[in-house]
Write a structure and sequence with these properties.
The chain has 354 residues and is an all-alpha fold. The protein is built from 16 helices and no strands. The C terminus is likely disordered.
């Protein structure tokens, strides 16, 4: 009884505190939401949506095993001896952590792997996509796509090396089990639906994280504290804060991209559609982050010209066909298409597992 009373008091106090902070800083909060929406419109949706839809659609195609063939010698070092699982790993690198969460669910349902195997796979599959790193971070924030390529290359190499090391710490049997059941074929509608849900989740967390960080910045002048809180909350908002506070620091961006912040962890749990322990993923960051920094340093030394070419600071960011509205319009069209034409998914009436 006492415990419930305390919970109610804390809940009421939280609600009162929320409204107090909002009305006291309403102008700053509204501006933060506007900036976040602008960020979603100009960077997140254009750089991610099409690749997420593509990854979902290909994930059940008949040609799926072929995708993994060039990488199977590397995957065998991680005891991945099934081409379908290897293909899911490749697609997760294309679509990012949202696709990785869904495809981890596929692997769990179809292959019933050991819990440690799912944890090791999460190190590989729960990362930011090349579209986000190269186009949003590299071209959008650093004004240099070559820096984005360096970051993506370093993070990819580091994630594989980290997974390889952790495979000896958290042992599991080889992933050679055949498919237990026929996977459900993804129609283009289902793929678009998943892409829309993924983008809405990502944009929602960006807006919430940006507002939280803005409120914190109103009550502290310590840039280290603000950067730490933002970095542990949401990656896009952290990149924006990092650019504003520390400029075009490729090493800071490397740390922010290598981490798994709270919003990303919650989205992975949501996209996974099941019970997934993130213990191994979080522990892997103890190696993944410093190793990524070392590899970035090596690549910058190998390709010094890439780190010295910058576009003018005031130049606008154009990611898809030199026109973000095209990709955003496609996203809105897909959302309308789902609402009015797809009667089997019932996105607003019933939650479905794919």
């Amino acid at each position: 009884m006492l415990k419930n009373s305390v919970k109610k008091i804390l809940f009421i106090a939280a609600v009162v505190l929320f409204f107090y902070i909002y009305f006291k800083n309403s102008k700053e909060i509204v501006q933060s939401v506007q900036n976040s929406l602008f960020l979603c419109y100009n960077i997140i949706i254009p750089s991610l949506f099409i690749f997420i839809v593509f990854s979902f659609y290909i994930s059940s195609a008949k040609m799926l095993p072929i995708i993994a063939l060039p990488f199977m010698p590397l995957f065998r070092l991680l005891k991945i001896r099934n081409n379908n699982i290897g293909a899911y790993v490749v697609l997760s690198y294309i679509g990012g952590f949202s696709v990785g969460g869904y495809l981890l669910s596929y692997i769990k349902d179809l292959f019933a792997p050991h819990e440690n195997a799912l944890g090791i796979l999460s190190i590989l599959m729960c990362n930011n996509s090349p579209a986000f790193i190269i186009m949003a971070v590299g071209l959008g924030f650093l004004n240099n796509s070559k820096l984005g390529i360096i970051l993506f290359s370093a993070l990819t190499i580091s994630s594989f090396m980290t997974a390889f090391v952790f495979s000896f710490i958290f042992r599991y049997p080889s992933l050679t089990v055949g498919i237990n059941k026929i996977p459900k074929t993804n129609s283009i509608v289902a793929s678009i639906n998943k892409g829309v849900i993924a983008i809405l989740n990502i944009c929602g967390t960006v807006i919430i994280a940006s507002v939280v960080c803005k409120v914190i910045s109103l009550y502290t002048d310590n840039v280290q504290v603000l950067m730490a809180v933002t970095g542990l909350t949401e990656v896009t908002a952290a990149c924006v804060s990092g650019l504003a506070l520390f400029g075009k620091n490729i090493y800071l961006f490397c740390v922010l991209l290598a981490l798994t912040p709270l919003s990303t962890a919650l989205q992975i749990k949501y996209f996974f559609n099941g019970v997934l322990s993130l213990k191994i993923l979080f522990l892997s960051k103890l190696l993944h982050v410093p190793l990524s920094l070392i590899i970035v340093r090596i690549l910058v030394n190998l390709f010094p010209s890439a780190a010295s070419v910058y576009l003018p600071t005031g130049q606008g960011v154009h990611l898809f066909w030199n026109s973000p509205p095209i990709s955003v319009s496609f996203f809105i069209f897909c959302l309308i298409f789902i609402i009015f034409f797809d009667k089997s998914i019932n996105i607003f009436t019933e939650k479905k597992k794919f």
